[in-house]
């Protein structure tokens, strides 16, 4: 069940994929240009990769979907993993990472949905990305993530939630048109198991913003 706030398109089941993708890209371009990417320096955002690293074999290959400035990519690279980072927005921070980590780091600007098929990874990080997609596209988005992982590969995803357990999810739309969905644990588990993943860990991390939290989910791709 989903509650919709200030939203007039996607939650009725009609995909607004094309126009919404452009709205999302423009909104994120603007946020980075304005230096309004508060998430890049938010401590609660950096709890996801340590959760994943506890389960990763040395020298794993990881795709960081919606990598932003590359804060998680940097943590993974420093831990000895190889990272492909993809984001709608090409960010200047990538250059220093490319210089420091050479062939272990690669970067692609564009929509994850449009990435050329082919390579698979040991793990995928989705830190704050899925919950901004059009809900009508969640299944396709997760099918793409699944295709990128080898069987048994790990997905670490961070979703908006509230500090107190939500009875049902909430879909918000910001003034710039970006959608943000708050999930509860049951919904997150159902979404991932329906997409061919087995959830192996769930953690709630409180944010500094009153009443808000992230739901960190670690899941394994079924065979
Ligand atoms: C809230 S930010 C999080 C950034 C980064 N993961 C972090 O931890 O700092 C979400 C990021 O996802 C990117 N993004 C959103 N939808 C995307 C998509 N469909 N394909 C690629 N990147 C996407 C945005 O441009 C933005 O940089």
TrEMBL record:
- Gene Ontology biological-process entries: methylation
* Keywords per UniProt: Methyltransferase, S-adenosyl-L-methionine, Transferase
**Highest rank taxon of the organism:** Bacteria
Q: Does the keyword Transferase belong to this entry?
A: yes
Q: Which Gene3D superfamilies match?
A: Vaccinia Virus protein VP39
Q: Annotated Gene Ontology MF terms?
A: 2-polyprenyl-6-hydroxyphenol methylase activity; 3-demethylubiquinol 3-O-methyltransferase activity
A Pfam family recorded for this sequence: Methyltransf_23
The first-level EC class reads transferase
| Family annotation (InterPro entries) | SAM-dependent_MTases_sf (IPR029063)
**EC numbers, comma separated:** 2.1.1.222, 2.1.1.64
- Protein name as catalogued: Class I SAM-dependent methyltransferase
In its UniProt entry, the species of origin is given as: Streptomyces nondiastaticus
Lineage, broadest ranks: Bacteria, Bacillati, Actinomycetota, Actinomycetes, Kitasatosporales
């Amino acid at each position: 069940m989903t509650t919709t706030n200030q939203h007039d398109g996607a939650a009725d089941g009609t995909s607004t994929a094309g126009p919404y993708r452009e709205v999302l890209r423009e909104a994120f371009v603007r946020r980075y240009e304005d230096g309004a990417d508060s998430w890049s320096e938010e401590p609660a955002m950096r709890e996801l990769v340590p959760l994943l690293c506890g389960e990763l074999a040395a020298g794993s290959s990881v795709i960081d979907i919606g990598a932003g400035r590359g804060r998680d990519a940097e943590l993974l690279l420093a831990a000895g993993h190889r990272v492909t980072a993809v984001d709608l927005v090409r960010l200047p921070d990538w250059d220093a990472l490319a210089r420091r980590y050479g062939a272990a780091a690669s970067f692609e600007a564009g929509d994850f949905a449009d990435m050329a098929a082919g390579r698979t990874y040991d793990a995928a990080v989705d830190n704050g990305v899925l919950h901004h997609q059009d809900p009508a596209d969640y299944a396709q988005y997760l099918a793409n993530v699944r295709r990128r992982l080898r069987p048994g590969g790990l997905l670490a995803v961070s979703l908006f939630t509230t500090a107190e357990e939500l009875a049902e999810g909430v879909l918000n739309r910001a003034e710039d048109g970006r959608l943000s969905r708050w999930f509860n644990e049951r919904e997150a588990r159902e979404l991932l198991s329906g997409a061919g993943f087995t959830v192996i860990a769930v953690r709630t991390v409180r944010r500094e913003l009153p009443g808000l939290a992230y739901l960190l989910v670690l899941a394994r791709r079924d065979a």
